[in-house]
Design goal:
Blueprint lengths: L5 E5 L2 E10 L4 H5 L2 H10 L9 E7 L3 H4 L2 E8 L13 E6 L2 E9 L5 H14 L6 E4 L2 E4 L2 E5 L13 E7 L3
Antiparallel strand pairs: 1-6, 2-4, 2-5, 3-4, 3-8, 3-9, 6-10, 7-8, 9-10
């Protein structure tokens, strides 16, 4: 179940994350690194300002279901974080400001493929253009986010989780 899509203006958002090339079947390998990211920011006295997110940077030729994906798993933080080489593959970055098409989903994360497809269809019907280009490796997105609003330590039932999809529109 989800809400109706809407268009929102978002400010830039600093984050700390880790990047990986995965497929949907190996997605858990990246998701399992979120506690490491959370520990890293906690050791530095930095508190996340929201729940974790996945930023889909590249969606390979097979699409979300079958393609190779380049994804960042991270946490939004209150200020820009400098990361030092030699500290592993965690890094600080900024999610870009801009206009985003968003939709909320309450339910199991398995339903997000359908919610994503519905959001893409909704935007197409409205004549909206994504901040996305095509390359040899697939679709390269300016910012395509899947943000988790439910803390699994508080609500372990995946069917009650709230997730927000936010895809940046061409400026």
């Amino acid at each position: 179940m989800g809400t109706q899509p809407s268009i929102v203006e978002r400010a830039e958002q600093p984050f700390v994350g880790v990047r990986s090339r995965i497929t949907l079947t190996s997605f858990g390998l990246l998701a399992d690194r979120l506690p490491e990211v959370l520990g890293w920011v906690g050791e530095r006295g930095i508190a996340p300002v929201d729940g974790p997110f996945f930023r889909y940077e590249v969606i390979g030729a097979g699409g979300l279901a079958d393609g190779e994906l380049q994804v960042v798993a991270g946490f939004p933080v209150s200020e820009r974080v400098r990361t030092v080489s030699g500290e592993g593959d965690l890094f600080g970055g900024v999610l870009p400001a801009g206009r985003y098409a968003t939709v909320a989903h309450v339910g199991h994360p398995d339903g997000l493929l359908q919610v994503s497809a519905s959001l893409l269809k909704w935007a197409h019907a409205k004549g909206l253009e994504w901040d996305m280009s095509h390359s040899d490796s697939g679709e390269v997105w300016g910012c395509r986010l899947e943000s988790y609003k439910t803390d699994p330590r508080v609500e372990p039932d995946l069917n009650k989780w709230e997730t927000e999809l936010a895809f940046r529109l061409r400026q």
